[in-house]
Design a protein that fits this description.
The chain has 383 residues and is α+β, with helices and mostly antiparallel strands. It folds into two domains: 4-180 and 292-377, Aminopeptidase (3-Layer(aba) Sandwich); 183-290, Alpha-Beta Plaits (2-Layer Sandwich). It is 35% helix and 25% strand. The strands form five sheets. A six-stranded mixed beta sheet has the order 1-2-6-3-7-16, with helices on both faces. The structure holds zinc ion.
């Protein structure tokens, strides 16, 4: 196992070159032709490593790429997305740049670095003639940055066949894995009152904006930083003109939770809001769209195992939490052992300073290779 780090360090230049190629093929979620060009390149790379590759055709977004090495239950699943938040042409104004041991470029960190690591790990094990005994699937989707609407089912289908999911999203700043991600929910709260002339019949009106104001305060008060629960009223609208008592006003509400139970409790609490003004009415729609990735017993065991594998190649692996979601939320919610944040170390996801620390590429690749070699021995205690 120790030899892995040495081997991949010697491959550093090839890894940097591969990442450069991936960044040069710009791939915003919204540009199907561009994403498909990158998809064709990745499919070719996987075929070169002996995979059986298929494309899952899409009309509006790029085709998802699925590469299989062997078939059957108990596979290891690599979860990657090739789409970025950067439009085609970004490179013209912000060219790829190598400086101070970093590679700067759109999508380098989120998450082309992760794709380069996955491919390099597989390539290295093949070159070393140490191919793992388990079936492996590499899934590279094309719409993660837009909520994974067309890929979610594919992700869940492959996850159900897997003993372990390796999500190649970027690492946290110190190389830590992400063992906790919040769940997200969106609600619309509509208050109904009764319209009336604001001067002549003020007392006959029921002011929907006044009613909504009570609800906004009640919603904001539900925030509990200690539990990791946040409620934010992000947008409100209502009324028609100043001389009319408004009969309708509404608000959009963002909810984030750390556990599924808390998500359910908050969902009930929000749907249970009661009007304050006599005669007013509330209408509430919405709910959870991504379940939280919880740091539950399964996650603790999976991470502890990863930590022990990392120790065998001389690494200390840390963990951390994030408020954002990823496709790992889906696989963890199915109770499939999931490791997230195995991608590159760097900074600036979705920001102009996006970059990868080049020294992290061989180290992360060695870690991923070690996890693949050890995956057959990972059995979590379902009791
Ligand atoms: Zn990402």
């Amino acid at each position: 196992m120790e030899k892995l780090v040495e081997y991949f360090r010697a491959q550093s230049d090839a890894m940097t070159a591969l990442l450069q190629q991936l960044v040069m093929l710009e791939s915003p979620t919204t540009h199907k032709a561009a994403v498909d060009r990158l998809g064709a390149f990745l499919a070719e790379q996987a075929r070169g490593l002996g995979a059986e590759v298929s494309l899952v055709r899409q009309e509006r977004v790029g085709d998802h790429v699925v590469a299989h090495w062997g078939r059957g239950d108990g596979q290891v699943l690599f979860l990657c997305h090739m789409d970025t938040v950067w439009e085609v042409g970004t490179l013209a104004t912000r060219p790829l740049r190598l400086a101070d041991g970093r590679l700067y470029g759109p999508g380098a960190y989120d998450m082309k670095g992760g794709i380069a690591i996955a491919l390099s790990a597989l390539g290295g094990l093949r070159a070393l003639d140490r191919w793992p005994a388990l079936p492996i699937t590499l899934l590279i989707t094309t719409d993660e940055e837009r909520g994974s609407r067309t890929s979610r089912e594919l992700i869940e289908t492959e996850a159900r066949r897997s003993r372990l999911v390796l999500c190649m999203e970027p690492a946290l700043s110190n190389g830590a894995l992400k063992t906790q991600r919040k769940g997200t929910a969106l609600f619309r709260v509509t208050a109904w009152g009764r319209a009336a002339h604001a001067g002549a019949d003020h007392e006959k009106g029921i002011n929907a904006i006044e009613e909504l104001a009570h609800q906004v305060l009640a919603l904001q008060r539900m925030t509990d930083y200690h539990n990791g629960t946040t409620v934010s009223v992000g947008r409100i609208e209502g009324g028609t003109r100043s001389n009319v008592v408004p009969d309708k006003a509404w608000a959009w509400v963002d909810l984030r939770v750390s556990t599924r139970a808390e998500g359910e409790r908050m969902n009930r609490a929000i749907h249970n809001l009661q009007p304050v003004l006599p005669g007013a009415r509330l209408e509430i729609s919405g709910g959870l769209n991504r379940l939280p990735m919880e740091r539950n017993e399964l996650m603790v065991q999976t991470f502890a195992w990863a930590q022990s594998v990392a120790a065998r190649i001389g690494f200390t692996l840390r963990e951390g939490a994030t408020g954002g979601g990823s496709d790992a939320n889906f696989t963890a919610a199915l109770n499939i052992p999931t490791l997230d944040g195995l991608g590159a170390v760097g900074d600036g996801a979705h920001a102009v300073n996006e970059h990868v620390l080049l020294a992290s590429l061989p180290e992360r690749t060695a870690l991923v290779a070690a996890l693949l070699l050890a995956a057959h021995e990972f059995n979590w205690d379902r009791g």
